[in-house]
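Memo subject: From amino acid sequence to discrete backbone structure tokens
Keywords: amino acid chain, backbone geometry, structure tokens, three-dimensional fold.
Body of memo: The sequence and its backbone structure tokens, given next.
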Amino acid sequence: MTWLIVLSLIVAGVVFLLLEILVVPGSTVVGLFGLALVIGGIVVSFNHYGVEVGVFTLAGALVVSMLGIGIALRSNTWKKAMHSSSLDGRVNVVEPDKVNKGDEGISITRLNPMGKAMIGDEYYEVTSKDNLIPENTPVVIVKVDGNRIIVKSKEE
């Protein structure tokens, strides 16, 4: 029955060490708890079965730890658990002839200095030339620089 306790302590300790490395890195508490469990299993083995079996238990614990870490760090192990879709959207896709200098719109959110504005029938992420433009304020495009749209308040 004692061998089951030793084996359980070592396996649980290795699991906690793997959690420290892969899931909650930097917390240290999980890793120290795992290390304490492994050491506890080895100490129980030394105390109950003697030096010879204790040394074999120590060697076995090292081998199991290294194999567990090696298997867990292989890239194929985590590909099954990872989210594999990619994001291909962009914030502003400004078509060259759709938005031009001098076009008018209305701010949908407060521009401080960035926010959303409706220009034509579409929403765009815009930057205000002034620091703050309240929402629902008419705006005029001052400059279109690639995907960056710079506006100012029309009321000025």
The chain has a mean pLDDT of 85. The chain has two domains: 2-79, 104-153. DSSP finds four helices and five strands in the chain.
